[in-house]
Write a structure and sequence with these properties.
Blueprint: E1 7-10, H1 17-29, E2 45-48, H2 58-62, H3 65-72
Parallel strand pairs: 1-2
């Protein structure tokens, strides 16, 4: 059972590792001190880098666990 205390950022495309690393880095660093938004999102986001989600739609990612199991069976 997933108890969510943070937001999830789920990787669904696995063809570009550098792009994923860049997204993760950007989210962890935030927009910097000049921004009026939260400077560092890293502690508020859980990164999900699981090939089981490859090609999943937002609806599939957000589905209850029983429905997500069907993603892995493709």
């Amino acid at each position: 059972m997933l108890v969510q205390e943070t937001d999830l950022l789920v990787r669904t495309y696995f063809g570009d590792d550098a792009a994923w690393a860049s997204v993760v880095d950007r989210v962890r660093r935030g927009r910097g001190a000049a921004s009026d938004v939260i400077e560092d999102f890293g502690e508020y986001v859980t990164f999900v880098d699981d090939p089981a989600y490859a090609g999943a739609t937002p609806e599939q990612v957000m589905a209850p666990r029983s429905a997500r199991a069907r993603i892995r069976k493709r």
